[in-house]
Amino acid sequence: MRILQLHCDNIEYTPTKKEIQSAEDIENPQTQRLEELVVVFVAIEDGDDSSVAQNAITQIKSSMEKIGSKKLLLYPYAHLSSNLAKPSIAIKLLKEMEDAASELEVSHSPFGWTKSYKIQVKGHPLAESSKVVTKDSASVKPDEELTSDALKGESKIRSFWKILSPDGTMTNIGDFNFAKYPKLEILAKYESAKIRKVDQPPPHVALMKKMGIADYEPASDSGNMRFYPNGRLIKSLIERYVTDRVKEYGGYEVETPIMYDSEHPSMVSYFNRFPARQYNIDSEGKKLFLRFAACFGQFLMANQYQLSYKNLPYKLYELTRYSFRREQSGELVGLRRLRAFTMPDCHAFCKDMPQAIDEIKVRFDLSQSVLKELGIDETDYDMAIRFTEDFYNENKSSIEELVKKHGRPVLVEMWKEKFFYFVLKWEFNFIDGLGKASALSTDQIDVENGNRYGIDFVDENNVKQNPIILHNSPSGAIERIIYALLEKAAKDSHEGRKPQFPLWLAPTQVRIIPLKEEFNTFTESLSDKISASDVRVDIDDRNESIGKRIREAEKEWIRYILVIGEKEANSQNLSIRDRQTGDVRELSFDDFINEIKDQTKGKPFTGLNLPKYLSKRPNLMV
Predict the structure, then answer these.
(1) How far apart are the first and last CA of the chain?
(2) Which DSSP helix (H) or strand (E) runs through 67?
(3) Can you spell out the DSSP letters for 187-230?
(4) What pairing do the DSSP bridges indicate for beta strands 307-308 and 457-458?
(5) How far is residue 593's CA from residue 317's CA, in Å, rounded to a whole number?
């Protein structure tokens, strides 16, 4: 069966001519006009049966729930297929579909007639979709990845898609005007379609190779990357910064194993309930899996604590290098989605829901601040928030407060019933140039794992309770932050702006270029003086023209370039080429260092991760 589903402002159709002998009988055919409905053009194919019809109408009703529509027109449309079923079978199956949608305001256009029609389709992300439904559509084919029962269960979750505005207005996604929020529209379409495969490499892939940051590792499993010296420097600085911010917030850093016994009682309970795509290992009769989050280790550790309500909220933190997740191969691309990734993971154990909600607001502010300081502004991402209908009804004002903090409308997925271990999850999603959304910061309110892992605390009445657990990553995966920065740089370049890393993340912050060998001693002394001020500086001492050396520094996105000739060697001031402004300025040494310090204040520092002299560096073949 092939269906084309359209969410419409209206449709107007007129039966004009019987095309087949078995066409429906109509007395006095007239023009019909229907408004505010979903129109489903249907072609019943040879081999379709009642199971196909029921599967199709179930999918149609599910998508109608998401957009808040209760009016359906089934429109027989033979032109969708060249392999049509016999008319008698098609009529029977269409009738079964109509009967199965009796809770809706459902109708059909006459079967077997030529019809003229005019249609006005709405302009929102979920307004148009097409599907092919077959007998085998729910079966696992030999070349498909085996899917756990939990993953199959996830696909059956009933949810509604809405837009929640900062003023508290909740709007059906089909009725929201996205004109001022194009990225939110992309996010809505991406999330509801759940299509994660990438058909072409995004711009950051070429940049990560060109800039000597990272590349695919052909000798490893897909989705495991190699990081070159520049990439390792950037990655380590981000890791240190995020870790410092979490510890300032109150997270206590721990370290836990990367593999766990899948037959441990807590793990069995978890995997029986929740979907996971993990790497499995057999070792000495044990069935182990590689962690895909820091949750397991931190929860097993928390199980060993004797906690009082006075200790809560208690926060454990780990930067996992690495977490492992067996993403599907078509989803793996560059640094955006990996099978081995570095995830800052902070769990807060809270005594009750009011404390958890207060804490999640603090972590929301932390996450916004962390992203901003990493070079990702609020305009670079859009927010999605997911919750159960019950949780929303009980905590509207707190949810609305989070949306106000974001300052723009957000995408909402509201679950009719609780399926996951959490009752709320929010996330900031970066939208790249290919229209793909990638979650960065996130937090969850977990109401199950305290009990599952036997974590308890003594409350004010000396009674043991299980804590509510918050799962926060203030940045998301470190590799994904680098992906977002490179995607932003690619966009800047495309739009005529100079791409740039935040100065504190630039592998080289200052490059010195001596005009002649006779200035090498002065250059060496100057580089030592700059380096002593915790600034990454290198020297291009190669036997190349000054023009070529400046151009190559520009291509490496080096912000400050100092060309040293006789005038500069004898001057009290520095002559500075500023790549960002395009100016050449004269500054005293102290003023120059202070300008750099102003841009790197509060950020971690590490020295060069390559030889100081460019003549000593091997060329990277990419």
Answers:
(1) 47
(2) helix 50-67
(3) HHHHHHHT----SS--HHHHHHHHTTSEEE-TTS-TT-EEE-HH
(4) parallel
(5) 35
Quote the tokens at residue 514. Answer: 């001596």
- Cα dist. 262→5, 286, 291 in Å? 42, 8, 10
What topology does CATH give the domain 159-485? BirA Bifunctional Protein; domain 2 (3.30.930)
pLDDT for 512 equals 98
Q: What is the DSSP secondary-structure string of 315-351?
A: EEEEEEEEEE----GGG-BTTTB-SEEEEEEEEEEES
The sign of the CA dihedral 223, 225, 231, 233 is positive
CATH fold of 2-132 reads D-tyrosyl-trna(Tyr) Deacylase; Chain: A; (3.50.80)
471 marked ligand binding residue: yes
Is 295 marked as binding a ligand? yes
The span from the CA of 539 to the CA of 612, in Å, is: 6
The yes-or-no verdict on residue 559 having pLDDT over 90 is yes
pTM for the whole structure:
0.81
CA 60 – CA 73 distance, rounded (Å):
11
Give 392's contacts (C-beta < 8 A, 6+ positions apart).
399, 414
What tokens appear for 496 in the block?
Answer: 């005529």
Query: What mean pLDDT is reported for the chain?
Result: 91
> What are the pLDDT digits (tens) for 351-398?
999 999 999 999 999 999 999 999 999 999 999 999 999 999 999 999
Q: Where in the chain is the domain with CATH 3.40.50.800?
A: 503-616
Rounded CA gap, 133 and 152, in Å?
A: 17
Domain with CATH 3.30.930.10 in the chain: 159-485
CATH of domain 503-616: 3.40.50.800
Under the banding of pLDDT at 50, 70 and 90, the label for residue 159 is confident
For the residues of 538-569, what is the DSSP string, one character each?
Answer: EE--SSS-HHHHHHHHHHTT-SEEEEE-HHHH
Q: What is the pLDDT of residues 51-78, one digit of tens each?
A: 999 999 998 998 888 788 899 999 999 9
